[in-house]
Every structure is written in C-alpha cells, then in structure tokens.
Amino acid sequence: MYVVMRPTEPALVPFVEVFWYFAGQPAHGRERVLPSGSMQLLVNLHEDELRTYAADGAARRVGGAVLQGVFRGPEVIDTAQQRTIAGVGFRAGGAFPFFALPASETTGALVALDTLWGRDGAVLRDRLLSARRPAGAPQAEPLATSAGAVAVLRELEAALLARVARPLVPDPAIAFAVGALERGAAVGSVAERLGMTGKRFGHRFGERIGLTPKRFARVRRFQRVLGSITPGLQVDWARLAAERGFYDQAHLIHDFRAMSGLSPSQYRPRSPADRNHVPLPG
Questions:
Q1: Could you tell me the strand order of the sheet in which 75-78 lies?
Q2: Where are the domains of the chain?
Q3: How far apart are CA 55 and CA 47, in angstroms?
Q4: Where are the alpha helices (DSSP H) in 28-110?
Q5: Is residue 233 exposed (0-12), middle (13-18) or buried (19+ Cβ within 10 Å)?
Q6: Do the Cβ atoms of 127 and 155 come closer than 8 Å?
Q7: Tell me, what's the pLDDT at 272?
Q8: How deeply is 159 buried, as exposed, middle or buried, from its count of CB atoms within 10 A (0-12, 13-18, 19+)?
Q9: How far apart are the two ends of the chain, measured CA to CA in Å?
Q10: Closest CA to 249 of 258, 261, 240, 259
C-alpha cells in the first residue's frame, strides 16, 4: 500500500511536495537509491532504525526517525527493515525553514531527528504509531489501512508545522536558481542574473539545497535522462545525449554511471513510478 497526501496547509506548499506512507514487503532485500536533489524526513514504523550500506558493504545505522540529506550519488538501503515507513518529500531547498542546521551539513547523511528537534524528534515515531492505531485497538495488532495511513500523514504534517525554525517565505533567488538550473542554464549565468559573485551564490545555494549549484544541475540533468527513457525499450542514446546537454553519448554514459553506479543498459527500476529505486540482485 502506498498513500500520498499533498500539504493541506497552504504555507507548506512551496516547501513540501508530498507526504507519503508505504506499507508492504518488496521481493528484494536491498535497493540502490539514486540522487534526486531533494531532502526527505523519514520515519520507519517497522523498526526503530534505518540502515544504509557503504560501497564495501559496511552498514551505517541510525535511529528510526531521520532527516535524509541530499545525495551526491547512489545509496544502498535495506528494504527488508522498511516494511512500513512514512516520509515528507521536500521540494529542492524546502527543508531549510524547518531545521536550524544548514542543508550543506546534512549532505549524504541520515541525521537522527532527536539531534535536530530534541524531544520532539525523539517522540515523533511514537506519535505516528499512536496515530495509526484507533483507540482501543490491541497494541500488537498490525494496522495497514488507508485511514491509518492518512492519520499518520496528518500527524506528520502537524509535527512539521510545529517545528518551523525560519519564516515560511520562499527565497526568490534560490527559487529562480533552481528553476534556471532545472532548465539547463549555466551556473555562471544564473549567478550573474542574480547579481551575485560565484562564491556568494554557491554559499547561499549550498546552505539551502545541500549541493553546490554545479552538482545540483548535474543531478537534475540525470533526472531528466531518467524521465526520458523506458526500461526495456531501445533508446537512441546519441540523440538523448544531444537533447540533454551532454557533449556526446560517451559523456552521458559516464555521467549515468557516476550518478547511479550502473550503465544505462543495467538500469531496471522497481517500477515506472519508482524510477529512483533500483533493486539489487540477491
């Protein structure tokens, strides 16, 4: 079961793309998660822990409620432990008003929510578990209903609204930069349009987005490539490379491997709707 909810509070719309809830058991044990340029708040309702894996297979463990910083490249997660999980999908830069820590200090990391929100972060998982279970239901009873999922997401939205650390006012310079870089504009031209030096622009962008402007542009170009292909169908890679601003086909393939750890021909997402999740064999 996968349930999504758009923000019900208008003030959240510029910052939050979606609240989501997943309950199920994937047939595979681990997945490669591809970089998107955005951050998430994750709460594991199955285990009070989240695990990711380094390139050498070593597990990195953190508590069950975390802020997931933006990734520069692919990360490996354990899907077996995430049979029930809820999250907030922030827009690019959208997490900035809710956390005192600059986004650049969370890049590539899962940061325990209790270190960011104190007691509110420490008890959030229990709050969501309670919201999922109607009054009088046995504690041991596993509930995975759409009504329970919506209750969890409404509680998650309330928790987010209670933790506003900065004014809920979009930064017009960052909004312009994100849009321009999404369309393939050069970083230098974006800084010039904003009347900023490259250094000042890079610092402001990094503390809100979590990536340098150049890396963000590269990640979003990779995402445009993913959105242009259908796994299993033949692709004219030379043409796609030209359309997406690569020097040539070899450049696209090199960048695809750097962003995903895979060649384009190896890319097989979990489903067409989950293009950033690639099951691992075994």
A1: 59-62, 50-53, 75-78, 30-33, 277-279
A2: 2-161, 172-263
A3: 23
A4: none
A5: exposed
A6: yes
A7: 81
A8: buried
A9: 24
A10: 240
| Contact call for residues 62 and 10 (beta carbons, < 8 A) | no
* Measured distance CA(117)–CA(133) in Å, rounded: 24
Query: Phi-psi category of 275—alpha, beta or left, where left has phi over 0 and alpha has psi -120 to 50?
Result: alpha
In terms of Cα–Cα distance, which of 279, 274, 260, 280 is closest to 227? 274
Cα 78 from Cα 28, distance rounded (Å):
9
The DSSP letter of residue 129 is H
Query: How would you label 38-69 residue by residue, b for 16+ Cβ within 10 Å and e otherwise?
Result: bbbbbbbbebeebbbbeeeeeeeebbbbbbbb
4: its two tokens: 């999504």
Supply the pLDDT for residue 140. 40
The residue type found at 191 is A
DSSP strands (E only) in 91-197 = 110-112
- The ranges of the chain with pLDDT < 70 are 27-28, 134-144, 282
**Token output for 233:** 């169908």
**What is the pTM for the complete model shown?**
0.91
What's the pLDDT score for residue 154? 96
| pLDDT of res. 59 | 84
CA separation for the pair 137, 173 (Å, rounded):
49
**Cα separation, 282 vs 280, whole angstroms:** 7
CATH architecture of 172-263: Orthogonal Bundle (1.10)
Query: Length of the chain in residues, anyone?
Result: 282
Q: Residue 186 and residue 195: Cα distance in Å, rounded?
A: 15
